[in-house]
Amino acid sequence: MTELDRPEGQAESAPFRFHGEGGEFFRIWLVNLALTLVTLGFYSPWAKVRNRQYLYGHTELAGHRFAYTADPVKILYGRLIALTIFGLYLFAGLNPVLGAIMALVMLFFWPWAMTRGMMFNARYSEYRGIHFSFSGSALEVFFLFFLLPPLTVLTLGLVLPYLLGKQKEYVVGHHWYGRQQFEVTMPVGKVYAFCLGFGLVGLGVFLGALLLTGLIGTLGDIEQNPFLLMAAMVPLYLAAILVFPLFKVVLMELALRHSKLEGLSFQSSLKWGRAIWILLTNQLGIIATLGLFIPFAKVRWAHYRAETLMMTPAEGLDNLVALQEEELAALGAESSEIFDVDLALGL
């Protein structure tokens, strides 16, 4: 938006941009996949770092690009620790007493591992030379993500939307940029409306699939031709592969629109029709190519998400960066943590 296009009194926004290309990222992704398979998974930490470095390095905000600077060796250490503990859990299952003890250990290990993963990824993500960080605790993760979700059954799921909002507030609100913390307050009413809408759509699709199945059953012989049943389940299947990605997008969209960073706020021009089309065709492409479309899907979504996202006001971003540089210079370099490893097992 130019100075002439912007309405009088409206602050200028700092735009996000993504400069990656599907074919370029596919070559990196394919080499990473091949090396991971050849090394029986040993190369996966290096694959994770290379993939993230490409996606971060091609994401731009107000003329500056992000960076991911993690050490793959630390990721490898973390995965070896996690796999060792998981192996001990499986081995202990052969003995009822040891199995019960290890189950209790795992109950507290996974919240801690989840927290360490978020800390690690934030610590090695940076923008204009300033690192992000995460200040959450394993105890909070245990309550919000492991203890409370099963208890929502006691309320027939009525408090689940509220809990989902609190989970998103926790993850976003415990991230920092330099020495400034993100602020986010999820609107309870909008979260409930969103969950109700998804629930009604899911129920409608399920009932529609049942009706279609019954109709096909009356017109044809499903037992003799199972392909008729498969055709009847297509709408349900398409909805299933779309619901989870769209669910995450909507929650993140709500969080972004209600997040602030030292006076800066996010603005989004995301169009739901376009977003659903990209997510759906991405899922279909991944299925049709047996996973080879994954890098193209990531690039397509990154392009659209970036072009619909801005930070306001633009001048506030430069002021914030300058403030962080002054504070960090006065405090000196951050001290490295003794147990600085990534315990996340995903690629």
- Runs in which pLDDT lies below 50 for 5 or more consecutive residues are 1-7, 333-339
What summary fits the major beta sheet? 11 strands, antiparallel
Helical segment count: 12
Secondary structure category: alpha+beta
Q: Rg from C-alpha positions? A: 23 Å
Spatial strand arrangement across the major sheet: 7-6-5-4-3-2-1-11-10-9-8
State the total count of DSSP E strands.
11
> Taking all residues together, what is the mean pLDDT?
84
Which percent bin holds the helix content? Answer: 55-70%
Query: Which band does the percent of strand residues land in?
Result: 5-15%
Morphology: globular
Order of helices and strands: EHHEEHHEEHHEEEHHHEEHHEH
How many angstroms separate the termini? 37 Å
The assembly state of the depicted protein chains is single chain
Characterization of this structure:
The chain is an alpha+beta fold and 347 residues long. The protein contains twelve helices and eleven strands. It has helices spanning 22-38, 44-57, 72-92, 96-123, 138-151, 160-173, 188-219, 226-232, 234-257, 272-288, 294-307, 314-331; strands at 14-18, 59-61, 64-68, 125-127, 130-134, 175-177, 180-181, 183-184, 259-261, 264-268, 309-312. Strands 7-6-5-4-3-2-1-11-10-9-8 form an eleven-stranded antiparallel β-sheet. A hairpin with a 2-residue loop joins β6 (175-177) and β7 (180-181). The two termini are 37 Å apart. The model is unreliable at 1-7 and 333-339 (pLDDT under 50).
Q: In a few lines, what is going on in this structure?
A:
With 347 residues, the protein is α+β, with helices and mostly antiparallel strands. It is built from 12 helices and 11 strands. It has an 11-stranded antiparallel β-sheet.
